[in-house]
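[worker-b] picked up task from shared queue
[worker-b] task type: protein-ligand structure
[worker-b] ligand name resolved to pyridoxal-5'-phosphate; SMILES cross-checked against name lookup, match
[worker-b] sequence length check passed
[worker-b] input payload:
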Amino acid sequence: MDKEFAVDSDGLHQAVNLMSRDFSNADGLALPIELPQIGMGSTAALNSLAPNILGGAALLGEATSFAHMDPPTPWITWAVSLWNASLNQNLLHPATAPVARQMEQRVVAWLAPFFGMNGGHMTPGSTVANLTALWSARERAGITQVIASEGAHLSIAKAAHILGLKYLSLPMDANGSMDAAQLPTDLSKAALVLTAGATSTGAIDPFELAGRAAWTHVDAAWAGPLRLSKYAHLLAGVELADSVAVSAHKWLFQPKESALVLFKDTEKAHAAVSFGGAYLAAPNVGVLGSHGATATTLLATLLAWGLQGVAQRIEHCMDLSHRLRDFLATDERLEIYAEPQTGIVVWRPRDENLVEHVLQQLPVGSTSTTAIAGGKWFRNVAANPSADIDLLIANICGALPKRV
Ligand SMILES: *Cc1c(COP(=O)(O)O)cnc(C)c1O
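[worker-b] inference finished, payload out:
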């Protein structure tokens, strides 16, 4: 056997040891311009890449990280990802992935009921989950139009474009939710997309609209996991949807690329987006061809933490966002865009001239920015359970000019 394909314990241990080395002062990328003729060997390649790959990345689990929807990942997912990479199963073929396919089905069966859905499948992200759901809506409900709020994720307009559907963007209300008053009366040919946790603001669209259109799709890419927590009521009405998208690589702390598309009637929805025949023993469901055992890391995390462990971490993230909100609300130099709904806090200095100044003072990776109605706002996202809110507050205070 070619030993490059065998378990090399020393090599793998070295890879793990490199993970705890400090590469923060590593130089920039020094890669050969041309594809090398002769390889340097696996150990040398690892050592030469470590400073760049490990030292060159944003650390999503560090105390100041509170800017994006990308969470740190638990170590059990790193271990299972290693197994996945070594096995390289293809879930397209039951023969190469007998157990991994069952694991995906089990994970989906565990999670779908939280959303009132009866099944679905995994996708590499909610971009593909949204596309798959709207594809199914087109086949099953004959929709010709997609309606979503201005605050909806760009993947909704993208899906409408790919599927040849008209796209209607409705204005937002003052909180960043869909303005229900603007909804057309005839929804018989429409897929209505309700967002749970708008990417910019975390706003939840009015879920009392669910079920009014020929197809209702809930884009819960960000806030979906709240259904597993004491905040489940924030998404009340989601169970009236026909399909739901949830990104597990956001608030379920999974490595990319991991998401779910869930359906109320999975058998019919899957049949509408399946192709079979020739070399395939089972029909190919959805957008992807070959795809990996993403479900195994999610399954491992859910087994390791249980529902309680997941809920506790999401609720802790919500607490962090509430503490930040409380500070921002009491400092008269700052304004909040709207009451945070799902762990996303949008704010800025009242004095517009201070926006760039404050942004420059804040540690990189602590705060992102977003444009709403032409204005620039700061955005904090509670995806990191290890974030230190006192430190963030101290940094914000330090960035503001001294009170006179
Ligand atoms: C992140 C996000 C998406 C896209 O999901 P990916 O997993 O990045 O493909 C879609 N909708 C909303 C509301 C999001 O926040």
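[worker-b] attaching auto-annotations
[worker-b] The mean pLDDT is 95.
[worker-b] releasing lock
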